[in-house]
Structure formats: C-alpha cells, structure tokens
Amino acid sequence: MKMNTLESEDSKSSDFSSTDEISLLVIILDTNPGQRILRDNPRTLTQCVDSVIAFANSHLMQKSQNKLVVMACHSKTSEFIYPNSDKPLDVRQVDGQYEIFTLVERTIKRNLAKMIAAESTALCNESLLAGAISMALCYIHRIQKTKPVGCKLNSRILVVTGSGDSAFQYMSYMNVFFTAQKQNVVIDVCALDQHLSLLQQGCDITSGLYLKIPQLQGLLQYLLWVFLPEPPIRPKLVLPPPVKVDYRAACFCHREMVDVGYVCSVCLSIFCKFSPICTTCHTVFKIPGPLAVKSKKKKMKL
Amino acid sequence: MVDEEDPREYRWETGYEKTWEAIKEDEEGFLEASVADIVQRAKRKRQAQKQKNTKLGMMRHLFLIVDCSESMSNQDLKPTRLYCTIKLLELFIEEFFDQNPISQLGIIIMQNKRADRISELSGNPRKHVKAIAGLNRTSLLGEPSLQNGLNMALKSLKLLPSHASREVLVIIGSLTTCDPTDINVTIDAMKAEGVRCSIVGLAAEVHICKQLASETNGTYNVVLDDSHYKDLLFQHVEPPPAAFCLESSLIKMGFPHQMVTEGTDEPLTMCMCHVDSVDEGSKLTTGGYYCPQCCSKYCELPVECRVCGLTLVSAPHLARSYHHLFPVGGYKEREFNNQVSSCYACQKVFGETEKQVYCCLKCEKIFCIDCDIFIHDTLHTCPGCATNSSVLQHKAA
Q1: For residue B289, what are the domain limits?
Q2: B137-187 tens-digit pLDDT
Q3: Which residues in chain B are contacts of A85 at CB distance < 8 A?
C-alpha cells in the first residue's frame, strides 16, 4: 500500500517506522435521532453507519497492529459498540472476506440495533459528544497503561456528527480537549451538517483535522481521503486548508463575542461591560482606577 | 499567624507509626500489589483534601528563589542537588504554565550573599526554562542570603495590582543564611504585603524558614529523596487559596484574533515580542495575534501588550483554569459485589481482583480506581455526568 511505503521512507520520525507501534482509532459516531439530517431522512443513518464501517475496516486493513474502537453517542447515553464488552461474536469466514471485517460489521450493527431499540421516544436535539470523548480518553488511558513494554501507542479520536454544539457543554469540551492535548491524542472531527465552532477549536488544540463535508453522499470518500492517513503522514498530503479558528470569547452576560472584555479575578467569568457584582461568583468588585482619575480631572477644571 | 505550634512537629515523634503493618503480602507472597495499593490510596487521599468552592488566587505571580550557594553541590540528591533541582524545575515550569496559563513567574538566584534576578516576571515558559537550564554553568559560591532574595522578590511583587496573588517559592539547600540586617523585618514586610512564602528545604529543617512559611501562610517541607522532592514541588502547581487581603476586581483583557480578510493573504508585519530582543530578531511574518486596542502584533498568547498595557489572552486560556474552580466531586468508595460487569468509562472488566469500585454521587455510575484517579487528576470531567443530559442540565441550571 502506498501509505506503508510512505511510512518507511519517513526518516525524520524514525520511531514511526518501527513495527512495535499500535495505531488506535476511536470512532465516535453520533446516532442521536434528534439531529436534523436524521429527522429529515432516517435512512441517512444506514448510509452513515455503512460508510463508517467501511472506513473502520480500511483502518484495520492498513496494518495488522492497528486497533479499532467504535462508540455510539446517542441522545441519552454513549456506548462502546465495538469491540464487544463481553464475549465476541462467533464469526466464520464469509465469501472469502477477512473475518475481522465481518466481525466489525456484525458487532456494530447488532449493538446499534440493541441501543436504538432501548431508546425512549423523547427526542433530544443535543448530542453529548463531550461525554463520549471523555469516555474514549479514559479507554485510551487504560490501553496506554496496559500496553506491552516497548511498544508505542498512537491514538486518535474521530468524531462523526451531524448535530450542533452548544455552550452548555463548553466546560466539558475544554476539559477533554486539554486532556487530549496532554495525552497526545489527536481529535479529528467530520461535521455532516452544521459548522461546529467548539469542536473546531478542539481540533486546533490537539492538532487534528476539522472538515465540514459539502455533501453527505460522498461521506465515505471524505473519510478515506482526509481522515484515514495517520497524523504523521498528513503534512505530506494535500488536504483541505485549515480554517482560521476564532478564539474570541463570548461574554457571560449577553453571549456575544467580545474583543475587549472584563474578567473577574476570582472566577474568570468574562463580561462585556463593567458591573459592580460578578453574576457567577457574587463577588463585589471595587471601583476601577480610571473612574477615580476622571473625577479628579473634573475638580481641577472647576 | 503563629498562634499555635504544629502539634506533630517532628517526624520521629509521630511520623512513623508501624508503617510495616500497612504492607501485606498477597497470596503468592508478593508485596508489589500492596505497595501499589498504598500509592493509589495516598493519591486518593490527596484528592479528597482538595477543598471545593474556595476562593483561589488564580492570577498568580510567583517568584522562584533558587539557592545557588556552595551547599547545592552536595551529592545527596543525584547527581548533585543543583542538577536535580534544574531538571525538576524545568518540569515544574512547564506544568505551572499548563495549569495556570494567565499567571506569571520570575526566577531569582541566591549566591555568594547576593541575589540575582535571572528571569523577569513574565508569562513565557520558554524563557524561564532557558534561564534555569543556564544555571548548569554557574559556579556555586559562598553562602545564600535569604533576606536579599526575599527583598528582591518583594520589590517586584509590591508593584503588582491588588487582585494579583503574590507568591514566593524558595528552594534552599543551605542550612544557614547570611543576611545584611534583621530578617524578621523582611518577614514582617512580606506578611504586610500578603506575599505567600513557601519553602522547600533540601537539607534539614531550619527554624527561620519554618517561621517565614508559617507567618506568611505558606508551606515548609524538607525533601526525603528526589521523588519526594518532585511531589513537594508539584504541590505548588495548583493555585493556592486566595490570601485574605486579596482584592477582587474586574480586569480588562483583550481577546485578539487573527486578522483575516476573505481571499487575501495576511499582511507581512513584525511582532512586538521580538522587536528588541538581541538573540532572535523580529522577522516579517504573516500570522500572529493583534491587540484589539492598538493593533500591535504578538507571536503568542498570553502576553501583556507592550504598547497599551492590555492583557491579551485567548478564551481557551481562561477555560483551562476553570477546572480549578469547578472540580469534579469526589467519588465514593464501594465494596465490589458485582453491581456492574465493567468500568463505565474505560470498559475494564471487573474481575476477582477488584475489591473496591468508585461511584459518582451525581450520576451513580461505577468506575475503576485508575479511572477515578485519571478523572480527578487530568480529565476534570465525570464521563458519567457528561453523557447524562439530565445531570448535565441540572448542573448548568
């Protein structure tokens, strides 16, 4: 395969070409029925699942050491749907296909069906992706701890989602992004429907890729072209140019983006105007210096 | 505030309480499992000590005062006290700025009865690490002067605005200090200015250090070995509770963004951070952050604008500090009796070896001990609560 020849040629990152390397890919698939693309056409889910399975199998095909974990982020819960937590399915070879591929497909579909059947009817628009990523990070942390001595684990997380992100998960998002950065876990995001500004920041922090796909029909192609190559190879490929990330802060009082704001020294809440009491931690502030200077000037004029 | 003496004053009085009884052999006669157990228990205990909802001094201004006197050449820490200190301080500085992104640090060395500032108070970790690494080549001379070191730190810390948390961390290997005048006057001055002085001793306990620490609400510890040294040092990474005289105020800050106009490249400009530096000059580059007030450019954040004095930060810098203020609640230890088959977060299957599992009080999910420690030390988000919309919404409300 082309990828593998590229790897062995890569002399700069010499440790990358060693065989004792495991690439762990955690795919988080948003299966929340509340997201717009699924509400409009529930069959989209089948297409997404099929694409993700094909993509997952391609990852496994690249190297025998490659590891795969698939999680489903549903409206109420997040679950690991591959590998099975209890005993694996008994799979025989079908049509000459590699058994693992059949195992991946069957396990994912069966667990997903179980999950959807157990779902209550109440719809919830927001998918709790931050929670799913935090579970993935705990999983990666365990694998990292239990891996055999001398082998290297490269882990990354791919989030495939069609729902939006909202500010009420902001803190969880930031915590998982910084943890991922610390643990050298790359977070890639494939947005199916809406632009996700928070997850985009996460990609930037962990030096992953963010792509909002132009059309859903080509999902598998985008996945294979953009997200299949390992992060060390990516600089050698021509990928969609990085988008400039807006790191401006939203003020806590009006939720508007601010250029210059006031920050509470106790709880670090951001406000767009000066107020005497912090609404988050109820601290009373002293009147700032500049106001006092102004009054003095007036007196001098009199 | 030294109203009472610390009840367990000396280690030989209370510290050793039949420590061998805590270690038990497992079925095969190995000790490792039991030792690992003790280590994890100690970690959990430290987490439990973290108080919730205390006012913290988030904008820290810390001066590291490092002893570079003759006593630092002692080889009781391998290879030498100084070398060990340099290596640990490099790690400490990285971790400090990782956890306290809007804080500032400065470094002073005490040598031959003098104090030298080798790094000004600033928020750039690379500069400090470079300064610390450079200590390798200094010759270790004479005696240190604690008073001179403290005075130099105080001179800079005095000028800071009242909302800043002022701290001094002294690393001293010497058992003596050679001071020009009465050091008690300096200690009183530190106390009056609300400077928190903590000391890590490398040799043995010294009365004046203990007095300095207790008067200024700091901590004083003496290291046992290099791993204990690291532990003691890293205790200072977490922001301390705010000093009582710390005023709270709203601080004006700028949130710069990159200057992008659709379809065109960014203009070539020079940055303000390198404009007058000698070793690496300012280059014409495209990227960078522009001060929203005066439009001067900086290569990295956080920084204080040199032109208009505005503090420039990015939103994630602030967000990185939020976990100190809103920590995850402690998990409750439960006996394992097959409540669940695996850990909620990492999917580890609970087997025979598991005796205790840990339960979040809010979402009632069960975790293993490794996840418990990982969640509280690094992640700062409970995976159970974050995947449960009702708990999350309840928390947000």
Answers
A1: 252-325
A2: 888 889 999 999 999 999 999 888 878 889 999 999 999 999 999 999 999
A3: 341-342, 347, 349
